[in-house]
Design brief:
Keywords: Signal. The chain has helices at 11-17, 28-32, 66-70, 101-111, 113-120, 124-127, 132-135, 148-156, 160-165, 201-206, 221-225, 248-251, 274-280, 285-288. By secondary structure, it is mainly alpha-helical. The structure holds heme C (10 copies).
Length: 305
């Protein structure tokens, strides 16, 4: 182990420096003498996961066992320490320690190289220095991030804005396990912006809202272009996850004077447009323009049918 005065050796080079002889002879049994379910950090649940499989030759348990991830035990397992002596450190994955993220991830990727090859390299989580172990828990029977109903909490621990949005009036059913963040995002990377599961925002939505795909005889340009122009998929305080209330939403783009597309208020009842205003009282644009996502009706050019 490096002298205290020397710069911290990186774990991977430590791994390379340590010889095969530094791995324990008895594998996990060596560790379990001191680490068990009653330890400050309970470790045994790993045996209920795929990493604890004795039959899969690729699993850690079939290889260096605990040391496949934590590195060779070396002097760490020494029974008695001299006064003032520190226990030799193991590789740890806990967030906030000084081991570089890339080196922690290299340990996971040494077995999960397929995943690495697919999209991980260059993805925003990789370049954003997120460790595999920031998302995945290894020493639990069920990894929380893989349970859809917990993703709001787990992903949301870093993505506060999206977590807050999921508590608003109108949301996708993210809280009950029907849907998770991973229905729309690929956490390991994707071909699309924002880690989306499909190539575009609209294709992502069409995966479940196929009826909005069209083709329509009369397309409403923004709907064919980008659903997120009008909807916040993470949730909003307007009905139907709209980014703004109707008519204001529509008036971002439509503001022709004279037509009811102007915001309505009681003052307009006495204007020359009084009749149309009266018609509009208490109504919204979508009461008349109801096929707002596009229309296949022969006379649906104004999305009224
Ligand atoms: C003789 C007892 C003993 C044995 C054997 C032992 N450990 Fe530890 N280990 C400890 C103690 C005590 C700590 C707490 C660290 C400290 O306070 O020094 C620890 C801490 C750790 C940590 C936290 C990181 C660190 O370095 O502090 C990891 C990871 C770890 N041990 C893994 C293992 C693995 C894997 C094995 C088997 C290959 C193993 N230990 C064998 C006693 C032991
Ligand atoms: C010694 C090889 C090895 C190492 C090192 C390793 N894994 Fe695995 N991992 C496996 C095997 C084998 C499986 C089971 C694959 C399967 O059945 O498809 C697995 C499965 C998984 C799964 C899916 C579990 C499930 O229930 O389906 C996750 C998540 C995972 N590993 C994450 C990690 C992370 C994070 C690290 C680094 C901290 C890591 N692995 C290190 C070999 C390894
Ligand atoms: C941003 C969080 C996050 C990060 C970072 C992350 N994962 Fe995952 N991982 C997930 C989620 C969520 C799933 C479940 C995906 C699903 O159900 O669609 C998953 C699934 C897996 C699986 C099992 C399914 C599969 O795709 O093979 C393995 C293995 C895995 N991850 C390994 C890793 C490794 C190795 C790393 C680091 C290189 C890593 N993960 C980084 C969130 C993450
Ligand atoms: C697949 C990789 C992997 C294997 C195999 C593995 N661990 Fe871990 N271990 C981790 C990760 C990642 C963490 C961080 C906490 C978590 O994700 O659960 C961790 C956390 C720990 C900790 C707490 C360390 C700290 O930072 O305080 C101890 C102690 C520990 N493991 C011991 C063991 C023992 C003993 C074994 C064998 C029975 C073992 N580990 C097998 C990946 C692994
Ligand atoms: C129904 C699909 C959907 C679900 C579910 C979803 N997202 Fe998104 N997310 C999107 C879309 C679409 C974008 C891109 C929006 C844009 O670019 O206007 C996005 C963007 C993001 C961004 C980038 C924001 C930015 O400003 O760049 C983050 C972070 C994010 N989502 C996290 C999450 C988290 C965390 C969850 C789960 C709580 C989640 N998302 C659930 C569709 C979804
Ligand atoms: C440990 C913190 C952490 C966790 C947990 C986490 N993320 Fe991230 N996420 C990040 C960081 C860091 C970035 C890069 C942000 C940046 O560059 O602004 C990011 C970026 C993103 C982006 C935006 C991608 C882009 O290209 O702009 C999306 C979408 C996202 N994460 C979704 C998720 C989802 C879904 C989960 C859960 C499965 C998750 N994240 C879990 C830290 C995290
Ligand atoms: C994995 C499937 C899935 C995906 C992908 C998906 N949705 Fe949804 N969406 C749902 C479900 C389920 C509901 C709730 C339906 C219900 O409550 O009747 C819903 C409801 C909605 C609602 C109506 C909410 C309300 O309060 O009436 C809107 C708007 C919506 N989604 C927009 C989008 C947009 C935009 C995207 C793409 C960014 C998208 N959805 C992607 C499954 C999905
Ligand atoms: C021009 C703004 C706009 C765009 C762009 C838009 N929507 Fe909507 N969407 C609305 C409005 C307004 C409502 C509420 C309709 C109402 O009040 O009856 C709505 C309602 C919905 C609903 C719930 C009610 C229903 O009709 O099923 C879903 C689901 C939905 N939109 C999905 C989508 C998808 C998917 C896209 C992208 C293809 C999209 N929207 C693009 C304005 C828009
Ligand atoms: C992001 C900008 C945008 C938003 C928001 C938007 N539209 Fe549009 N809308 C357009 C564009 C672009 C066209 C096609 C260009 C044109 O013909 O003027 C269009 C066309 C229309 C048409 C047909 C116009 C015609 O002349 O044939 C109607 C009706 C319409 N929109 C109603 C609405 C309503 C109602 C809302 C609110 C629910 C809305 N729009 C929100 C951009 C938008
Ligand atoms: C009472 C029913 C009604 C309401 C409410 C209504 N419209 Fe219309 N809108 C129409 C009719 C009818 C037409 C077709 C006029 C024509 O063909 O000359 C039309 C046409 C349009 C057009 C096409 C361009 C134009 O001026 O002819 C746009 C854009 C439009 N409406 C937007 C809106 C917006 C935005 C709102 C909400 C602020 C809204 N409408 C509310 C009935 C309505």
């Amino acid at each position: 182990m490096a002298d205290a005065a020397e710069p911290q050796a990186s774990p991977v080079s430590t791994l390379e420096l340590k010889q095969a002889a530094d791995y324990s002879k008895d594998g996990a049994d060596t560790c379990l003498g001191c680490h068990d379910e009653d330890s400050a950090f309970p470790v045994l649940s790993i045996f209920k996961t795929k990493h604890g499989s004795r039959t899969d030759p690729h699993s850690p348990l079939a290889q260096y066992q605990c040391e496949s991830c934590h590195g060779p035990v070396g002097e760490h397992g020494k029974k008695r320490l001299r006064k003032g002596e520190n226990r030799e450190a193991m590789i740890t994955f806990t967030r906030g320690n000084e081991i570089p993220v890339a080196e922690k991830n290299a340990i996971c990727s040494s077995c999960h190289e397929q995943l690495d090859k697919r999209h991980w390299a260059g993805s925003s989580h990789q370049t954003g220095e997120v460790a595999c172990s920031d998302c995945h828990k290894i020493h639990v029977k069920e990894d929380p991030i893989r349970l859809k109903q917990l993703q709001v909490q787990v992903c949301g621990s870093c993505h506060q804005a999206e977590k807050l949005a999921s508590k608003r009036f109108s949301t996708h059913p993210l809280e009950y396990g029907q849907m998770g963040c991973t229905d729309c995002h690929s956490p390991h990377g994707s071909n699309a912006d924002k880690l989306l599961v499909a190539d575009t925002i609209n294709d992502t939505c069409f995966g479940c809202h196929a009826e909005k795909r069209g083709p329509f005889a009369w397309e409403h340009e923004p709907a064919s272009e980008n659903c997120a122009l009008c909807h916040n998929p993470h949730g909003s305080n307007q009905p139907a996850m709209l980014t703004q209330k109707v008519p204001f939403l529509c008036q971002n783009c439509h503001s022709s004077a004279g037509h009811p597309s102007l915001a309505q208020d009681s003052s307009r009842l006495s204007t020359p447009y009084a009749s149309s205003s009266a018609l509009l009282l208490g109504r919204s644009c979508t009461n008349c323009h109801s096929s707002i996502h596009g229309s296949n009706h022969p006379s649906g050019s104004r999305f009224q049918r």
